[in-house]
Design goal:
This protein has 10 helices and 10 strands. It has a 4-stranded mixed β-sheet. The chain has a 4-stranded antiparallel β-sheet with strand order 2-3-7-6, with no helix packed on it. Helix 4 packs antiparallel against helix 5. A hairpin with a 2-residue loop joins strand 2 and strand 3. It starts with 11 loop residues before the first helix and ends with a helix. Helices cover 52% and strands 14% of the residues. With 389 residues, it is an alpha+beta fold. The chain binds flavin-adenine dinucleotide. The site of flavin-adenine dinucleotide has 22 residues, from strand 1, strand 3 and helix 10. It is an enzyme of class 1 (oxidoreductase). Keywords: FAD, Flavoprotein, Oxidoreductase. InterPro entries: Acyl-CoA_dehydrogenase, Acyl-CoA_DH_CS, Acyl-CoA_Oxase/DH_mid-dom, Acyl-CoA_Oxase/DH_mid-dom_sf, AcylCo_DH-like_C, AcylCo_DH/oxidase_C, AcylCoA_DH/ox_N, AcylCoA_DH/ox_N_sf.
């Protein structure tokens, strides 16, 4: 059950790209995604397959092997990735390309791009983004990991939590405090640096998060890790500005995958309702059920148009904070509601451990917290809508 969305944003080239991405995902990714969830891993060959189709660097610079396509190619890719219905592989890849390596593309030196971005676009190195800490999630002023200077190196100490791709990433784009007195807080002395997984003092502990299993969530601890000064991304102490800028892309990417996910969930539920017979008819023929599905489909179309609009704004101004926050709020909350209502419509089948619909619900719930909880999105929207006018 689909609504033909307006052709305002997509050209014939985008639609041809959509067909090729969908075929790639159907043939090479979806058949394995349940196994990857069980094993908590997206195997190396899959990263190479994404890269071989040019899907890990759609907007990244050509000098790093990227395709420098317009942003609506990424909208197509992320929406189709969402349509696979597997949060694990969806976020493993989205985080790699749109959340971690985006810092290297926008602020990394040519040396960092050569050592980390180019291999990441080629699928040879996998990226993770390490910001959240035990005492700092929504409020980044509490970040405590430090990088002190010693003999031309940075010595990093600290803890990171809930790191997507943490179990198999080759490098971590990490937020640290570079200057200031011990125990300092606030935004002013945050920096971003690349930490190699192979460095001495990096400890990786699996985090058994019930959602997005294939992305091998992990907690990290850095104990006296020696990081070359050249691994700092952009200017020292410009970390907060960089996070605020890249966060918009992260939130937009989350919103795009969420609408793909919700569309997939409605499709599979409609198929279930059409097969499920009772009281001499099918569930899909019951008016109450049809109306419920029609409401959800309408809400999805409204969210989709908001997300496309935010993408259009983002392509013109990467600091479209209000639009990206609205898109993240609306799309991830709607995907959660769709998932939970569809689970109910599956009856008892909706509660079978390890079933596809249970996974969809768990994955959709997590997306309303990761990358900024819905309450934080509402705070941002209220501030920009009323206080900053
Ligand atoms: C599946 C998943 C993947 C993640 N991946 C990564 C990753 O790869 N890298 C990384 O660095 N981090 C990652 N995170 C962490 C994520 O960014 C944080 O969970 C998020 O920022 C919220 O922080 P917190 O969990 O510490 O919750 P807290 O900040 O402690 O907030 C707890 C709850 O309080 C409420 N709340 C928060 N702020 C407000 C407010 N202003 N007003 C009212 N209520 C509020 C919300 O309901 C929120 O869920 C991931 C999280 C999840 C769930």
């Amino acid at each position: 059950m689909t609504v033909d969305s307006s052709q305002v944003y997509f050209s014939a080239e985008h639609e041809a790209f959509r067909r090729s991405v969908r075929a790639f995902l159907d043939e090479q990714i979806a058949p394995h995604a349940a196994d990857w969830d069980r094993n908590r891993e997206v195997p190396r060959w899959a990263w190479l397959a994404f890269a071989a189709d040019g899907l890990l660097g759609l907007n990244h610079p050509r000098s790093a092997g990227g395709a420098e396509k317009d942003f609506f190619h990424s909208v197509v890719f992320l929406e189709e990735l969402g349509r696979t219905g597997f949060g694990g592989v969806r976020f493993a890849v989205a985080l790699h390309s749109y959340m971690a390596t985006s810092y290297l593309a926008s602020g990394g030196s040519s040396d960092l791009r050569r050592r980390y971005l180019a291999p990441a676009v080629a699928g040879k190195k996998i990226a993770a983004l390490a910001i959240t800490e035990p005492q700092a999630g929504s409020d980044l002023t509490g970040l405590a990991a430090t990088a002190r200077e010693e003999g031309g190196l940075l010595i990093v100490d600290g803890e990171k939590r809930f790191i997507v791709n943490g179990g198999f990433a080759d490098f971590f784009v990490t937020a640290v405090r570079t200057d200031g007195p011990p125990g300092s807080t606030g935004h002013s002395n945050l920096s971003l640096c690349v930490i190699d997984r192979a460095s001495d003092g990096v400890r990786i502990v699996p985090n058994d998060c019930v959602s997005w299993r294939a992305c091998a969530m992990a907690d990290l601890s850095f104990g006296g890790v020696r990081v070359p000064e050249a691994n700092v991304i952009g200017r020292r102490n410009s970390g907060f500005t960089q996070i605020m800028k890249n966060m918009q892309l992260e939130r937009l990417a989350a919103s795009i995958t969420a609408i793909g996910d919700a569309a997939h969930c409605l499709d599979l539920t409609w198929r279930f309702l059409s097969r499920r017979e009772m009281f001499s008819t099918t569930l899909a023929a019951k008016q109450v059920v049809r109306h419920q599905m029609a409401e959800l489909l309408t809400e999805l179309e409204a969210a989709r148009q908001l997300v496309y609009h935010a993408a259009w704004r983002y392509a013109r101004d990467p600091l479209s904070i209000t639009e990206c926050s609205m898109a993240k709020l609306k799309a991830t909350e709607l995907a959660r509601i769709v998932a939970e209502e569809c689970q109910h419509l599956h009856g008892a089948e909706g509660f079978r451990e390890g079933s596809h619909i249970v996974r969809i619900v768990q994955d959709a719930q997590a997306a309303t917290v990761a990358g900024g909880a819905s309450e934080v999105m509402r705070d941002i929207i209220a501030r920009s809508g009323y206080e900053e006018r």
